[in-house]
Amino acid sequence: MQTKCNPLAAGAIALVAGLAGHTVAQAQGQDSAAATTPPAVVITGSRIPRAGTEGPSAVTVITAADIEKQGYRNVFDALSNQTQNSGFTQGADYGNTFTPSANAISLRGLGPNHTLVLLNGRRMADFPTAYDGTVNFTNLANIPSSVVDRIEILSGGASAVYGSDAIAGVVNIILKKQFDGYDVNVKAGGTSRGGAGDKRVQFTGGQSFDKLNTLFSVELLERDPLWSADRDFMASKTGVAPTAVLSRKNVSTGKYVDLGDTCASIGDLFGGSTVNYASKTGSYCASPKVGPTYWTTQTKNSSQNVFGSANYELSLTTTLYAEALFGQNRSTQNTRGPTWTSRSLSDSYFWNQNTNAYEAWTRYISPEEMGGVERYNRSWDDQASSLSFGVKGAFTGTTWTYEAGYTASLYKSQDHRPRALANIDSFFLGPQLGVNADGVAIYAPDPARLTRRLTPAEFDSITGTSVSDDKSWTNTLSLTANGEVFNLPAGPVKVATVAELGKQGFSNVPDARINQGYFNVATGSDVTAGTRKRYALGAEASIPVIKSVDATLAGRYDRYNFAGRNDGKFTYNGGIEWRPAQQLLVRANYATSFRAPDMNYIYKARGTGYYSSTTDYYRCAKAGQAVADCEFANVSPGADYVQTGSKDLRSEKGRSTGLGFVWSPSADFDVSVDYWNIKISDLVTNLDADTLLRDEAACRLAGDLSSPTCADAISRIVRFPDNALNRPGEIKQILVNPINAASTSVDGIDVAAKYVLRLKDYGSIITKANYSKTLNKHSRQFAGDPLKDDLEDLTNYDWRDKLNASVTWNKGDWSNTLFFQRYGKAPNAAGDAFLTPTTLVNASVVYRLNARATLSVAVNNLFNQVKADNSAGWPYYPVGNYSPVGRQGWVELNYHFGG
């Protein structure tokens, strides 16, 4: 379950440079009254230890027990389901993404790159491939849950404490520091609809040897894929033309060439679904099951994670520490099978010498021909590692403590992608016989080469696998200190200081054979790489103004060196806590923040690729077709794009404010209400292709070619001429690049409540609820554009509000939990209406078998709901907003021995 806490104001998680969660040693000489005060700990919000958990900013705490009882499978699952995580993200199970082996969150809907994610208060290396091909982010998929003590979420700007990235908030994943004995945990589960099973084994232990304290954990996970064909509702495309499997087209007439009995002879392909499809322009072989056959809605995953830590007490006031984390992960997925279009790298058609006509040939190779659908899987091998070590302690005879530490983090990813080889044209068409007077390639192909089925050996002769290597890293040296500086009538003024020196870098190295013409893909895949340095100095203070009022102040200066230029920012924040009564806290905070431009935005070389799917709104409108029924909608694969970076981008500047109260009349009841507001100027964002296509269509239809947005959108959608012989009027490519957008702002409310009902002999019932609602969100792309209402924008798939509620009954050896998640409205896939809110229910039972063993049973999506969305056709559910998996269940056994 989730507990709402309210820490000290400034921001952050963890004792600087990674001491989060540790109790700080206090100087000798404390009186007996102080001995009864709760121990001072660092809670996300400040580098200054304090006894209480309330402060001028709200912090949400997710404990290890919450992760188990609420049915969360891992750290990402726990974070993504929090109410503050309102932003739509393309995770590992989204489908054809740039980062199918990674998961990210988006606090307040401001994007994955605006939330700073820390591990024990330390920065981790970014995932080496940019999210959605644009922004850098932290992957949450490879953090072992077995050693997680708690997760703390601070919403709002915290740059004055943590520097760049902390605009939407800070997430600190705090690992256990001590462990006595050994735990073996085994967990396995599956789904009631079939597929998507998973299993996990964890071995965690710790032991103390005089002055040395150690902890380790090993975690092994296996997860089965879920294919679209495994779910009846999306196993076949309905209501639209089936996907072409084999076709010949006369480009001059626009008519398909009759294939005779070909379709009948290959009718057993794609599970026996291949048929002769008669269109307005002739017939071709087609199947409604092509897309579902090749599409995984849940990736296959195998990962192994190891964590170890050690603390050695040199003296009563000095401790050496070291922590190491290593994880390797293989992800496998499929988003489309092997296709071939004649001369796809040039004009997509040729001169057929045998028929004296311009023709375009296409072929979709089936699983039956190549030896199984998994033969065309794509896989990623990831390795993530981090090492931290340092010294911490106290200055004898003072209240001051210190820590000096070094952290190095490295993330490597290798992408194995199946591709057609450069010989595929000659395989189907035979040798090229030159070019005609118009410069079009001449062939004299045998039609039998197109129409007969392939053997696995033939398939192997025309396909191969490209291998790209991606890497990112970060190193940080930090020094922190905190203590009391002087006393005021209401108490001591406490100060924390920090100095940091860091460097980070990344590289994306595509397979060199791409530019050598080895594969049937366009050359021009360039290496993208870059580095930057960071320097920072900061301080914060906790000031007891009067007995009932405390204030906090923080300031920090960060300076970045990159791409031959410097960019420095000073940020500050302040907070106030007023307690008019012992049971009531009124709080307020104000913070400035910033974000240095993503390195991918800065250093991106000319990148080419294609979108997973594209909707050509202009052609749909010209044809008088609604998006849901349009032949040009959700076309997969989508349009080609060309993306470039910019070294002239400015840092983003942010401001956040908060106002709220906490009422806690007893230990069994508390409620908090907080209003928050975040504004960003000079927002760096890559131009969104779908938005560009919508804008282009609206502008062309309205005849507006000159307004700032219209002129820009039309210039970026490059089309074939309307009189082109092949593909007239179709999208040729979309040009995108990052810009400093004019502004964006978002505000809303968070509500949290807890009530404990004690029933004596019948145990206790604990109820908790968290609710977040976005009240307003506005943005403009260019200064001359009108302000855009993002909450009414039907291309903005963020949640407008979310509610989590849980009821737990604890009695004796039993703990039973019902967890409710209500998702508010979000747009449908067609972008023409909102989907209705939906509530999902998870249930868990934990039973303590004896003093050493517990048995747990958890069921997610208890009522087996899958949200339907037929508005834009296949796959008939809201991809990214809801899961198609249905009911999932797990059995978990934990045994403790030793200690």
UniProtKB/TrEMBL annotation:
Q: What start and end residues bound the annotated signal peptide?
A: 1-27
Domain TonB-dependent receptor plug spans what residues? 54-170
The domain of life is Bacteria
One family name in Pfam for this protein: TonB_dep_Rec_b-barrel
Q: Which compartments does it reside in?
A: Cell outer membrane
Q: Which intervals hold domain TonB-dependent receptor-like beta-barrel?
A: 344-862
Q: Which PROSITE patterns match?
A: TONB_DEPENDENT_REC_3 (PS52016)
Protein's UniProt keywords contain Ribosomal protein: no
The way this protein sits in the membrane is described as: Multi-pass membrane protein
Can you tell me which family this protein belongs to? Belongs to the TonB-dependent receptor family.
Listed name of the protein: TonB-dependent receptor
Q: Which organism is it from?
A: Duganella aquatilis
